[in-house]
# Entry
Amino acid sequence: MQKNKSHFPLTATALLVAISIIFSTFVIYIPMFGFKSVRFSMTSIPIFIAGSLFGGVYGAVAGFVSDVIGFMFTSQGAPYHPGFTINATLVGLIPGMAFYYFKNQRNTMNLNKINLVLGVLALAGTEIYINFIGIHEVENLGSFMGIPMNIVLSILMVMVLILLIIIVLWVQKRFGIANGLFTIDQVIFVCILNFIVAHLILTPFWIQNLYGVPIMASVIVRIFKSLIDIPLQVALIYVVLCTLPQKVKGAYLCKNNEL
# Structure
C-alpha cells in the first residue's frame, strides 16, 4: 500500500500532463497587432492542480513536459520560444510554493483586500486599453444599439469585476474553507500571482522578441485578458480541488516536506 501511495503523485501528474496536452488542442486566439497575440485555453489548469497537490517540483516538471510535448503536436508552424516553456514551468511551480506557504505558515495577509486591489488595477488597465491604446481596434467593431463599442466594453468590464466580487463573497459564505485546506481567496490570489509572473511580466518580453510588439501594448492587452481568464480559471480550479477525495487532499495537498 505504501509503495502504491508513493507512486501516486507521479502517476497522477502524468495523467494531468496528458489532460493538459489534450486541452492544448482546444485554444481560442484573438488577433491583435496583426497576429494571434491573445490566447485563451485551459492548458494551465491541470498543471496548476499538479503543483497544488504534489508540490512545486511536480508542478514545474508537469508544466515543462506538457509545453514541450504540446508544442510538438499543436504548434501549427509557429516558432518555438523557450520563454513560453519557462512560463509553463512557473505555472506549476508557483502554486506548489504558495500553497506550501499557506499550509505551513501563519497567514496574516488579508487576501481579499489584495485581490480587490489587483482587480481594480486590472480594470484600470483594461479601461486604458479600450479607451486609449486600443481605441482604433475597438472602433472597428462598430457600435451596439447606437452606443460606441468602447463605452459598451468599458461598462461590461466593470460589470465583470463586480460579478466576480459577488461570486467570491457568495462562495466564501456558502462553502467557507473547503475541508480545512484552502479558501477561495487563496485560489484567487495564487491564480493572480501566476498571471502576473508568467503572463504579465514575462510573456510581453517573449512576444516582443518574437514579433516586435511593444512591451507596454502587450501588457495592457493581457490585463484586458485577465478579467476574463482569471475568473474562469479560479472557478474551474476551485471546483476541481473541492471535488477531489478528502484522502487525496489530506495526503498530498502541499505536504509539509515538499515544495
In short: The chain has one domain: 2-252. The radius of gyration is 19 Å. The CA atoms of residues 75 and 202 lie 20 Å apart.
